[in-house]
Amino acid sequence: MHVCLSLLLLVSLPVLHGQTYPNPYRAVDGWAKLPDGRQMGAVGDVQVDPDGVHIWAIIRCDASAPERFGNECLDSDLDCILKFDAEGNLV
User: Fold this and answer.
1) Where are the chain's structural domains?
2) Predicted structure pTM score
3) Strand order from edge to edge, sheet including 43-48
4) Separation of alpha carbons 31 and 27, rounded Å
5) How is 8-60 classified by DSSP, letter by letter?
């Protein structure tokens, strides 16, 4: 019993400690501005550029055809790796 309680405390401690700080991030709807009426597709990944200012994102080609989810980029010439500035403008 003592071993199980100790194990439970060890497993729970990082989770409790990891959630003590407020989340500094927030969602901003419409932040990314895509050209020519392109709609935001599913976002696969987002990374901050080494310069600490720009954002790189992997985005599915277009969200305008939901029936093609998963193969939106098939037959598309749209870029799927995009770089944005801090204001959400495509660079």
Assistant:
1) 28-84
2) 0.62
3) 43-48, 55-59, 81-84
4) 9
5) HHHHHHHHHHHTSSPP-----TT-SB-GGGPPP--EEEEEE-TTSS-EEEEE-
Rounded to whole angstroms, how far apart are CA atoms 30 and 86? 13
Q: Are 45 and 55 in contact (CB under 8 A)?
A: no
In tens, the pLDDT along 62-86 reads 666 667 666 767 777 888 899 999 9
Distance CA 72, CA 58 (A): 13
CA 42, 44, 48, 54 torsion: positive or negative?
Answer: negative
